[in-house]
Amino acid sequence: QVQLVESGGGLVQAGESLRLSCAASGNIFSINVMGWYRQAPGKQRELVATLTSGGTTNYADSVKGRFTISRDNAKNTAYLQMNSLKPLDTAVYYCNAAVTTTLGYELLYWGQGTQVTVSS
């Protein structure tokens, strides 16, 4: 089994910053892609950013220039630095990881989510 645990969410004012962390643990052989998604009330879950093990990033247009995804491969941990936050960024943020397990399975795992609330 593989577990993803997010942390770092909270309540901030518009223009402030937050840094989310996502730590993966368990029967991990390698992690190909780690990503962040978010879901606002009444809306579908949407991609925020992804980062491959080779360093390729992909960002939603709405966060380009404000958010930065990074990862520490040695710690199986991904980060999302969120700057210049806006009320529209308010959502539950979920981490996911495309994992090759020690048994050779390639599976996608999700964390439990962390709430980010941005007040105006």
Can you describe this structure?
The protein is mainly beta and 120 residues long. It has no helices and 11 strands. The strands form 2 sheets. Strands 2, 4, 5, 6, 9, 10 and 11 form a 7-stranded mixed sheet that branches. It has a 4-stranded antiparallel sheet with strand order 1-3-8-7, with no helix packed on it. A hairpin with a 6-residue loop joins strand 4 (28-39) and strand 5 (46-52). The chain is elongated. The relative contact order is 0.33. The model has no long low-confidence stretch (mean pLDDT 96).
Summarize the structure.
The protein is an all-beta fold and 120 residues long. The protein is 0% helix and 62% strand.
Chart the SSEs and their pairings.
Elements: E1 2-7, E2 10-13, E3 18-26, E4 28-39, E5 46-52, E6 57-59, E7 67-72, E8 77-82, E9 91-101, E10 106-110, E11 114-119
Parallel strand pairs: 2-11
Antiparallel strand pairs: 1-3, 3-8, 4-5, 4-9, 5-6, 7-8, 9-10, 9-11
Instruction: Round the Cα radius of gyration to an integer and report it.
Output: 14 Å
Euclidean distance between termini CA atoms? 40 Å
Helix segment tally:
0
Largest sheet: 7 strands, mixed
Shape: elongated
Backbone structural class: mainly beta
| Relative helix content | under 10%
The low-pLDDT segments are none
Number of strands: 11
Mean pLDDT across all amino acids: 96
What is the element string, with H for helices and E for strands?
EEEEEEEEEEE
Share of residues in strands: over 45%
